[in-house]
Amino acid sequence: MDAREPHPALAVEGNRVNVLAYPPPTTGQFVVFVAALLTAGLFVGTWLHNEILGASWTRSVLLCEASAQDAGAGLPPGEAFLARTLAAQQCAGPVERIRVLWSAGGTAMVALGAVALMYVRPAVIRRRRRLSRPTPAMRPVLERFAGLSAEAGLRRCPALFIGPTRMRDAFSFGVPGAYAVALPRKAVAMLQRPGVFDAVVRHELAHVRHGDVALAWLARSIWYVLGPVLLLPVVWAFIQGDLSLLPSYLWRVALLAVVVEVTSAGLLRSREHDADLAAARGQSQLAELWTCLGLLPARRTAWLRRVTARHPDADRRREVLESPHRAARIGFLDGLAAAFLAALGVPLVVGAAVTLTAGTGLTLAGQAAGALLAGPLLGITVGFGLWRAALMEEAAALPSTQPRFSRLAVAGGVAVGLALGQTASLAQTGVEPTGLTTPLWILVPVVLGAASVGLSASMATTWARAVRIFPRPWPAWSLAMMVNAVLFAAGAWMWGTLQAALDGMGWEGTRLWVLSGFSELPLVGAALFLVSASAAGLILAARARGRPDPGWLLDGIPDPAEPSPRGTGTEVPGLLSQFLGGAAAGAFTVAVLAVWRQLIGPLDTFAAREQLTWTVIWVCAAAWGAASLAGIILRPVEGAGAALAGGATATVVGVLGFAVINTLRGGPLTLELVGFLLRPALGLGFALGLTAGLLATLPWPAHAMAGIRSRLLLASTAAGMAAVAAVGVIASAPVLVGPPPLADGRTPGDPGGTAIAEAEAAEIEHYAQALAPGYLFAYLFADEQLRVAGNLLDRDPPAALGHLRSVVVPAVAALRSDVEHYAPRTQEVQSVHNELLDAIGLTGRKLELFATAIEQGDESALLEGAALQEEERRLLLRWQAGVIRLGSGQAGP
After folding, report:
1. What DSSP designation does 571 have?
2. Separation between Cα atoms, residue 712 and residue 720, nearest integer Å
3. Which is one GO molecular function term here (predicted)?
4. What b/e string do you get for 252-268 counting C-beta neighbours within 10 Å, with b at 16 or more?
5. What are phi and psi for residue 243, nearest 5 degrees?
6. What DSSP assignment string belongs to 504-566?
7. Residue of 159 and 360 predicted with greater confidence
8. Largest Cα–Cα distance in the chain?
9. Dist CA 224 CA 218 (whole Å)
10. Rounded to the nearest 5 degrees, what angle is found at the Cα of 534, between the Cα atoms of 722 and 571?
11. CA distances from 368 to 346, 364, 381 (A)
12. Is residue 169 within 8 Å of 185, Cβ to Cβ?
């Protein structure tokens, strides 16, 4: 049969699904696209400020520095520097606010220019394309157009224009409230073949109804404004004769231009398929559009032309009409574009947020801003796209020989996109390529980003079988968006903070940070939410077994009243099996802890208590990771998502079991003890389970494994439990050296063999669990902003000095104020707290030396500051070790 022959029956393999039951993820991709381009305006605004007002800003800052020299008279060097800086900051407040306004003005300029251009373009299009209103002789065309508009559900009929004779294709344009459709001159002749005319008009009206017109033209207008603006620094560099930054800048702009072109073309192609499917609801409309596509010439284009084409070729459009589930597939380029654009703006947004909140006490929110930007954007694009693709392929009941979308391709795209986005951000111009002291840590978002894809795709398989419960589509897709927004936001928070900790403190400091960082309530809450979503999916999938697909999921073929066949994949595991498996893993974990508790003997020193604390947390967290590994080996497709419930159960059982063992040996059994161990164990366990999701992206031969499930069960369980034991032994090895003894000969925190009073125990618990994590996070933030100032030093010393004065010093001053304000009542806490006070004192002196080095070009001051930084880090690690010992003092008798 000729490919262009009308074919109303369409011999489709499997079911014909209603892809439009779920919103297309391209809407979210347009949002990411627009957000990334707008954030680039922050760079433009900052550059304009530096070029126009940079000299004036520098003079004002230096004058304020001079006027503040007497502010710290009579104080120790570190405190005097902080006092002088705070006085200078108050003096320079007006010029700093102007700098912030210029940065925000860059984004506003791009946005307003794009909106203005979008509203001007319709008139330009009408003039350039020589469009005209229909003549009175075309009244039948107008009447039929109005009827089809009402049929499409549009409250306001778009304006109709007729193009010249040479115009070949219909298109839509306009702005919200004033949309228009342009038809070629042959529209009058097309009306003689109502099926063809109706198909063309329905397709264009579908674009209007789905909001494609406004999104597409807005995105294009932003780039038309931003592109020339981004060339201004290049032109100015040639005028000034300073080309030092051009290599670092030009490749970033060029890469952004390529991604913009490829992404916008891909989004427009995807929307064409959505419009086709909206115009082909039911057999008659499908046949009409099939006939219309048969009139288009068959073109074979090269791969590069296909990637940059804004319209898919006729053959590809017919393939999607035959098998609508193809329109829902997501691949490498989809993941790469979304991740690249989401990561591209994070450094710029964080930098702007930090500058805006400098001195307000809210600067730590800048760190969360990055995760809250990139995470949900990835969730509503990549994550939601995975769930939509899994559902449509499951509902299509494809034969086993039919190819499916590749998780590995999507994960690879996200991994590459995150690495490129962080590296290519305009905020990194003239600094380290990745913005990191150790470029190796760029692998942190690469690994966790790809693993997030694996976990999302695994959960998607379970929920694809659970949606038969829903009588309407909106609860299903709303839940999909919510779950993926939380999943990717949690992942973004983890890879952002973990990368900062590794780059700022190294492995040893990060290992200590894990206890506080992974016990943060937002992360633990997100983990428990995802566990609940996984459990709900397993329950609903079991209830939906044997039910027919809902009518909203199929496009009338076959009859949705009849049970429809589903895919050939195995049924998802039950929730009870996950709980039982998790309980078994937890019981094994308790056994490991019981043996280890017996081996280490009495806990009469803080070193022993610290060793036991590490053992409990890491072994219980490893139980979650082991459960995830076992789940993936046994059920490669849905195992990672289903194992969330089992992994959390294993961790909880492990912690509670240890609490019982500890109580039987005479230790305290309190909610504070359980919470102290459970929160970091759950957070770390979720991180390990998420990382295991990387294996779920691999193309496992599920059909070949069905016959060896029993052997795999034994092998995977043994491997998982061996992992628990191995991690327990490794994690419990003593790696920290205790602080020196106190004046009375006791080890800090050692009550001299007597029971700690309740008041002292309460203060120790409050300091270890509430105060210390906040202090550490504040220090990490200040340290990261110091690296930002260091990166600015080579290309813009005044900006580096300004960032040091306006962001770093206020952050350290706020931290010092909080630390000094707290007065410990117990000697144990006082000893540990003094380590932090000493470290922050060195921080102030270090910043003073760095400022002197920048202002006077004094290399000796820079070297002295670097030496102080090493001592500062040593004291900080000792303080962290002391915090761990304070907390672990509750872990045993």
Report:
1. P
2. 12
3. metalloendopeptidase activity
4. bbebbeebbebbbbbbb
5. -105, 15
6. HHHHHHHHHHHHHHTT-HHHHHHHHHHHHHHHHHHHHHHHHTTPPPPGGGEEEES-TTSPPP-
7. 159
8. 106
9. 10
10. 85
11. 10, 7, 20
12. no
Indicate the pairing of strand 554-557 with strand 159-162: unpaired
pLDDT tier at 72, thresholds 50, 70, 90: low
Q: Tell me which amino acid residue 155 is.
A: R
Nearest Cα residue to 38 out of 97, 115, 101: 115
- pLDDT bucket at 199, cuts 50 / 70 / 90: confident
SS3 call for 130: coil
How much is the average pLDDT of 415-427? Answer: 90
Tokens of 166: 């040479």
Instruction: Measure the CA–CA gap between 648 and 650, rounded to whole angstroms.
Output: 5
d(CA 265, CA 442): 29
Best CA proximity match to 469, nearest among 549, 390, 523 = 549
Which residue matches tokens 């319709």? Answer: 122
Give pairs for 56-61: CB < 8 Å, separation 24+: 56/95, 57/95, 57/98, 57/99, 57/798, 57/802, 58/798, 60/92, 60/95, 61/88, 61/92, 61/95, 61/798, 61/801, 61/802, 61/805
Quick check: 785 and 774 in contact, CB under 8 A?
Answer: no
The CA angle 123-126-129, to the nearest 5 degrees, is: 140
- Which residue do the tokens 């419009």 mark? 275
Interior angle at CA 361, CA 499 and CA 512, nearest 5: 35
- Of the candidates 801, 817, 820, 810, which has an alpha carbon nearest to the alpha carbon of residue 782? 810
3-state secondary structure of 299: coil
Q: Pairing mode, if any, of strands 178-183 and 159-162?
A: parallel
For residue 74, the SS3 value is coil
Q: Residue 88 is encoded by which pair of tokens?
A: 């200078």
| Residues 797, 62: Cα–Cα separation, whole Å | 13
Model confidence band, residue 312 (pLDDT cutoffs 50, 70, 90): confident
Domain positions in the chain are 329-542, 575-731, 758-888
Alpha carbon of residue 310 to chain centroid? 28
The pLDDT of residue 426 is above 80: yes
DSSP letter, residue 132: B
Q: Mean pLDDT over residues 723-734, rounded? A: 52
Per residue in 135-177, pLDDT tens? 888 888 888 899 999 988 888 999 999 988 888 888 999 998 8
Q: Assign 134 to helix, strand or coil.
A: coil
> Phi and psi for 361 in degrees, rounded to 5?
85, 0
CA–CA separation, 487 and 445 (whole Å): 14
Cβ–Cβ contacts within 10 Å for residue 359, how many? 18
Locate 292 and state its tokens.
């219309």
Q: What proportions of the chain, in percent to the nearest 5, are helix, strand and coil?
A: 75, 0, 25
Distance CA 91, CA 677 (A): 47
Burial (CB count within 10 angstroms: exposed 0-12, middle 13-18, buried 19+), residue 672: middle
CB 44 within 8 A of CB 229: yes
Work out the angle between the directed axes of helices 859-888 and 827-856 (0-180°, nearest 10): 160
